[in-house]
């Protein structure tokens, strides 16, 4: 994708190193809607405005009250003014490249009377919305594949929920990425290069600088020749294989042999990552239509490549790790991998063009850079599918929820308790404990609602009274420290979703500030 012209490389230097120009372009093209300018909502927007989202809109019908001054973006002298307008003005001061707007209107009324209003946004962030209105908004977003983020903070606890039908990721950037070195199944050019090196004729310098990839290729070939073409199959055989590597040293200082020993596991056959396998065989990859996204067209092309030119292998990544070698041997080896990766990309490109043509699309719809990136990251593809709010309510994962609620190390019970508080607000038009004189009555009422929810969820064990009492004790409080924390986590997930990089949470995150623990789970 062409980088947006407004990108300021000096301003965004650090983040460009993190998610690249394409990620920044996605960010600058995004439109975020915040429903209700609470402290948590504004902290979330702050962390999106600073890195340069394209546009944000705040929808809020409230006037600034005294309780709103826990929000750093409500400035002195704002009492009685539109909360949406005040926070919009303050937030836009953070980055002159971001466009902000506001709509002073009750979100509930907007959802009921103008549901199409929300179709313009990339992501909708919601907090403090009644349950029935949230369900309506959830359906609007779900039907239009708009990401919905629900964030809820009360006192020392809160949760974030991500909801979207499907989210695909090319650059998932795992913590421990694999090296695609093809030692177990070398391509002809690599095998020819390794075979041309005769270790017995090398001088001590060249012997100690032979790349470990070559050493492993030779050791595998030697092993298979004496074991009927089989690889080491068990711990004992693999130990013998590793020992043979060190036995080939001419002296103890040969670091390249030590590297080969440590990387010996890379010489054994491995399976294609299960996540990639699932994507290549997904119905959306098998049945390309004119409505198919670029991701699924690329997946279909790679699947065809694997089944044909790739002979069961994904396109080569084309990179090799640092290793003990001469500059000449390292560059020669690197060139072999780059050229093979280029050949694989070329083969996939032909298949992409054929697929596009078959569904009536222009053959150049997907750029060369997009194809190359997909091939390079094909080992790390991810597709996350969420459940809609309607589905969550209609078909709760009772067995999973029971297990989590009964787990003393899980915070899942807070998810249910906060849901009860939201339902209380829908009935009483205020949160439990917000009026001091009614605290005792609120505890009784909230406990009854919590029991109703556990019955709906088919849970055997009712929520312990201590959770109900704690929420009533919080009243309508939104601590700024909690708002800041949740704003940071929420914005981080939003950036993942906008840039289609890194793996977002699936799908609920709960933080218990009382004991400083987190729990992530799918509902």
Describe this structure in words.
By secondary structure, the chain is of the alpha/beta class. The chain starts with 12 loop residues before the first helix and ends with a strand. Helix content is 48%, strand content 10%. The strands form 2 sheets. The chain has an 8-stranded mixed beta sheet, with helices on both faces. Strands 7-8 form a two-stranded antiparallel sheet.
- Anisotropy-based shape: elongated
Domain tally? 4
What is the C-level CATH assignment of the largest domain? Alpha Beta
Radius of gyration: 28 Å
Strands, total number? 10
Query: What percent strand?
Result: 5-15%
Low-confidence stretches: 1-5
* Helix content bin: 40-55%
**How would you state the average pLDDT, rounded?**
93
Looking at CATH, the homologous superfamily of the largest domain is NAD(P)-binding Rossmann-like Domain
- CATH architectural name of the largest domain: 3-Layer(aba) Sandwich
What gap, in angstroms, lies between the N and C termini?
A: 35 Å
Please summarize the sheet with the most strands: 8 strands, mixed
CATH fold title of the largest domain: Rossmann fold
Query: Structural class from helices and strands?
Result: alpha/beta
Query: Helix tally?
Result: 21
What is the strand arrangement across the widest sheet?
3-2-1-4-5-6-9-10
